[in-house]
Amino acid sequence: MAEEKKEEPQWNKEAKTLAELGYHFNDEGKLRNIEDGSGFKWVNQAHYEKLALFVLEDIQKAMREKHGLIEHWLPIKNGEDGTTTEDHKNKVNIFYTKDWTTNTKGALILIQGTGAVRAGQWARKCCINDSLTTGTVLPQLERAAKNGWSVIVLNPNYNRDPETKSIIMHNESMEAHCSYVYRNFVLRGGSFATPADDLYMVSHSAGGYCTVKLVEEFYDDLNLRLKRLALTDSAHSGLIKTQRSAEFFKTKAYHWIASDKPLNTRCPERDQASGCTCVSAGHKEHEYTTGVSREAFMNFLEGGEVEPITTKPSKRNCLPIVLFAGLALAFYFLPKSG
Fold it and tell me: Between vectors from CA 120 to CA 188 and to CA 281, what angle results, nearest 5°?
């Protein structure tokens, strides 16, 4: 007898907002069903992609409206204001704080990894299944504001126009995008360059590879101005080719890697390949490394020391140890044969 085909759950294919799909973010930044407060439930890939698009729209809206970031469309064109243009055809958007071109206290550069994530996200999976705290740059925006730093949020995965499918000029790859943004928004003399002498950077996953390329291209400027570099499960291992780049990473960077060890636990077996000191991000899943280690790497960027954080075992965890010790003692006092 032929197996009956399961009916696909019904959902609003014409939805234009997250709310029309039946979801919203609560006060804790967690995605919840509007009707019953439950978390995300899988329907199919089409539903997931539409929901992920609305999640991104909400994140970027929060960046603009709650945190006051400016949205700038690239490439830069003569006679066009990239912050007000409504023509987004064959363009990519980045975000920066309103004081980006005036703040001299410090500037934070955020570079995401590869994949479907866009400006403002570290991992879609975390945004949807965990919270905006672990999946987005919003906590870094808040922390930077407290430090008096300006911030720029790159968008290295947006290389083709989603409608025309055309490659976006000067942004045809992750590394090309990062180079273009650095040249125009960070490097001295750039059209929208930050005047800050002190730079700080967070690079996740393939963003670490882009950082290696930036160091190669803009070594003099970065070596002078970048104070500290935080890498989170970065994909740059073995890609540092020059002695000066090696010294750069060794002296300026810390790498929080995916690991089931407690946060900040040293992982020296990874130091050589990474070219810098490696510690645990406090989570074994790649997508969660930035969100879980956010307090640790921000403390580091602010000048703090990276010290291993230890946790006391719970009573539940202690129980097997106590039982094992008791059995061992009992065995020790058993009469011995022979």
Answer: 95
Closest CA to 210 of 187, 223, 229: 229
Q: Is the pLDDT of residue 321 over 90?
A: no
CB 25 within 8 A of CB 132: yes
DSSP 184: H
Q: What is the arrangement of strands in the sheet containing 150-153, beginning at the earlier edge strand?
A: 70-74, 92-96, 150-153, 107-111, 199-204, 226-232, 253-257, 277-280
pLDDT tens digit sequence for 283-312: 999 999 999 999 999 999 999 999 866 544
Separation of first and last alpha carbons in the chain: 68
Distance between CA atoms of residues 44 and 114, nearest Å: 23
Query: What share of the chain has pLDDT > 70, as a percent?
Result: 89
Separation CA 80–CA 74 (nearest Å): 10
Tell whether pTM > 0.85.
yes
